Fold:
Amino acid sequence: MPATITAFARSPDRGRGLARDMRVRWALEEVGQPYEVRLVSFSEMKEPAHRALHPFGQIPTYEEGDLALFESGAIVLHIAQRHAGLLPDDANARARAVAWMFAALNTVEPPILENRFAWMLERDQPWYAQRQQVLDDRVRVRLAELSGRLGDAQWLDGAFSAGDLLMVTVLRRLGAWPVLDEYPNLCAYVARAEERPAYKRAFDDQLAVFTTSAPDTLTGKGLEKNGDSSDV
Ligand code: GTB
Structure:
């Protein structure tokens, strides 16, 4: 039986691959595992049936036989541990790849999300300009550090790994803010990842959900108009 994941029935990002099911789809494509997708609405996510899978009432979830998982990082790690292609065989290299997974989610993603949340939810506030400076600086510090570490390499530590997969999804959360342009090697890193056939398949599949779903009342501002202010 293929694994089943959950994704937004109507993603607020309009299929730009920013919702976290994209990480799981991409990982499954990288390791060549088939999967099924159960689409859930915002209200269904908060129902007991979904909360039994995900205590916080979110997507993505992952079901495989008796196993039910939540948290995109844990799901990607599980896939990478079960199937070849996302973690090196060498024990030390494997440990370093896992360190990059944690770095993506614990060190690089938080300042990016804080910045993007503030822009989305607080940019009309009189104090926003001052706060924005601090938040922008925090992101630039991390990007500069990451850029310095990546240097001229293709990937963060040798071959492409689950660490790169998560890092690229995190960097893509910068969205329309062109700050990444200040770090040409990071731009090239993201572009290189987006060229991977597995990435393209995952992206196309999540985009197809949006393009084939019925129009709704979303506005150009996105999540805050759609009842999902908990995370973007
Ligand atoms: N830490 C968890 C994980 O990594 O799995 C976080 C999961 C999470 O935030 N899920 C979001 C969700 O279910 C969707 S991905 N939100 C609904 C809710 O909380 O009620 C976050 C997301 C949403 C939208 C965009 N976007 O529009 O660009 C990007 C990312």
